[in-house]
Each structure stands twice: as C-alpha cells, then as structure tokens.
Amino acid sequence: MLNRQKDIQTGENRHQIGADLALQIKTDIEEMKNQKSWRGFRHAYGLRARGQHTRTTGRKGKAMGVKKKEIKREALA
C-alpha cells in the first residue's frame, strides 16, 4: 500500500507516515494553487474540490440569512 504513487517531484513510489505525509499534502495543495488548476482554485476559496454538490449541502460555518437593521430608539419616542 503506497500513498505517494508516482511522486510529482521525483517520480518514485513511496509510503509516508505522520508529519511527513501532512507536510507533503500541504505542499501539494500549495502547488495546485500556484499552478491555478481547478482543484487549486477550489482549495483557495474553501469550496469542495472532489465534485460534490454545493447548492444545498456543506453550509455549516458560513454566514446564512439576512441581518436585520437596528431600530433607533430616539426616532420612536
């Protein structure tokens, strides 16, 4: 079981674990952003990168709804 098949820089098959794997994934994502690829664009804007629907799902953590204006108390009195 290999998690780095055909590595982009070296072309060899490797299996990384722990902090090395996390660092490699982070650098891969940054490389996609720098190349301005579709997946890099999705990562940069915090959108789903693997083809999921986004119209109705994945709304947690984002601002939803309309903010009401504050009523001035002096105008009513």
Q: What would your notes on this structure say?
A:
This protein has 77 residues and is mostly helical. It has a single domain (19-76), classed as 30s ribosomal protein s13, domain 2. Helices cover 36% and strands 0% of the residues. The protein is built from three helices and no strands. Helix 1 packs across helix 2. It is elongated, with a radius of gyration of 22 Å. The mean pLDDT is 83.
Give the topology.
Elements: H1 19-35, H2 38-44, H3 73-76
Helix pairs in contact: 1-2
Largest sheet: none
The gross shape turns out to be elongated
- The CATH architecture can be given as Irregular
Q: Write the element-wise H/E pattern from the N-terminal end onward.
A: HHH
Total helical segments:
3
Strand content: under 5%
Helical content band: 25-40%
* Chain-averaged pLDDT: 83
Q: How many domains comprise the coordinates?
A: 1
How many strand units?
A: 0
Annotated CATH topology:
30s ribosomal protein s13, domain 2
Spatial separation of the terminal alpha carbons: 74 Å
Radius of gyration: 22 Å
Top CATH class:
Few Secondary Structures
What is the chains' assembly state? Answer: single chain
Low-confidence stretches: none
The secondary-structure class comes to mainly alpha
Characteristics:
0% strand, 36% helix, 30s ribosomal protein s13, domain 2
At a glance:
With 77 residues, the protein is mainly α.
